[in-house]
Amino acid sequence: MKRILYILLLLPMFLSAQTVSVKDLKDGDLIFQDMDCGPLCDAIEAVTEGYKGADFSHMGMVVHRNDTLYIMEAAGKAVRLNTLEKFSKNTAKPMLVARLKKKHQNLVPQAIAFSIKQLGVPYDPEYVYSNGAYYCSELIYDAFMFANGGKPFFTLYPMTYKQPGTSDFFPAWVEYYKAINKPIPEGQPGCNPGGISTSNKIDVLGNLSKL
């Protein structure tokens, strides 16, 4: 009995270490990245906890169009469809793949339809929810909320830009918001890749195989 229990406890560890082939990616799959973008990414990851403690600062959604695989993402200047090859160049670290649980798969077509309508919507450099622009996880949040009949599917949390255990903002955020001449949106509702990666509405499949 103890041996069986031990194996069951280790099973999630083995599953998360699995490799997902590119050819096995399906529409609606979510890909999480630990981006290499310096102090800002470090600050994002310091205040958010991803699946099994992993660090994630960016995410996108798999979309097939005309037999070609793309990643739907809010990045750069606007919402866009990016090739997986270009998307993968954001990081040298393994990318995590997750899929909506079977009972939620019916939401995928409408989530994709919504996100396609957002192509060209400006990227949100303020990271403020529902201000007419999108950051990466916000696009995914809204896409699945739309598909869910307007009811939240993932979860919004109060956002923080402060160093854990202190009342001090990360210097990187202070400099960033000063540069764009906007107030730091401390405490406002928002979402992040790490939080979505821990949702009980998705199954983590493993790391994406190298291209």
Summarize the structure.
With 211 residues, the chain is an alpha+beta fold.
Please name the defining characteristics of this protein:
alpha+beta; endopeptidase fold (from Nostoc punctiforme); 211 residues; 9 strands; single chain; 7-stranded mixed sheet; 30% helix
Number of domains: 1
- Percent of residues in helices comes to 25-40%
Structural class of the secondary structure composition?
A: alpha+beta
CATH H-level superfamily title: endopeptidase domain like (from Nostoc punctiforme)
Low-confidence stretches: 4-16
**Helix tally?**
7
Compute the average pLDDT: 91
Strand order, sheet with most strands? 1-9-6-2-3-4-5
Rg from Cα:
17 Å
What is the CATH class name?
Alpha Beta
- Along the chain, the helix and strand elements come as HEEHEEEHEHHEHEHE
The count of β-strands is: 9
CATH architecture: Alpha-Beta Complex
